[in-house]
Each structure stands twice: as structure tokens, then as C-alpha cells.
Amino acid sequence: MAAVPTVDRGRVLAHRAAAQQLGRPGLRPADLAVLDLGVQDTPYGSARLALAARGAAGLDDDRLELVWAARGAPHLHRRAELTGLAATL
Asked: pTM here?
């Protein structure tokens, strides 16, 4: 039987921080990878908080739009991707 690799808490948290782009200041909101899935804005204002946690420079980005999307909740999405999103939903 193959040995199961061990991963400590620190490595897991470091991977999550990198994958979620936490602590990468200077990116504009629409350039963040988290926007590939959309950022839920419930309660109101939580999307801006999520972007700020990722170090987004200037939370106002005219490339974003707040729309009612997955699970019947408002999500922030890239405006250029809305047609594809509508077709998918």
C-alpha cells in the first residue's frame, strides 16, 4: 500500500491563500481569479469586502456588474462574460 503524504496546516493555508489570491495587492478587481466564478454579494457589501481581502486596488471597476446569478443571489461578475453566464445558467 502506498504511503499517504502528510500535509501540515501551514502548507494547506499557504496553498489556499495563493489559490484565492489573498495578499496580492495591486490587481484591479476584474483581474482577480475569484471573478471566474463570481463573487456573491449577500449580505450587501460582502463582495467589496472579498475583493478588498484580496488586495484589489480601487474597488470600483467599470468592467464589473452586479447581477442576480447562481442560487438566486446577487453576484459580481465581469461584464464581458455576462452573455456566456446567461447561456450557462
From this structure: 0.74
- C-alpha 89/C-alpha 3 separation (Å) is 42
**Residues in a beta bridge with 66:** 76
| DSSP secondary structure letter of residue 21 | T
Q: What are phi and psi of 83, to 5 degrees?
A: -65, -45
Tens-digit pLDDT string for the chain (89 aa): 788 888 899 999 998 888 888 766 778 889 888 888 899 999 998 998 888 888 887 678 899 999 998 888 999 999 999 999 889 88
Residues 6+ apart with CB under 8 A from 74: 40, 41, 42, 44, 47, 66, 67, 68
List, in order, residues 6 or more apart from 27 with CB less than 8 Å away.
21, 54, 55, 56, 57
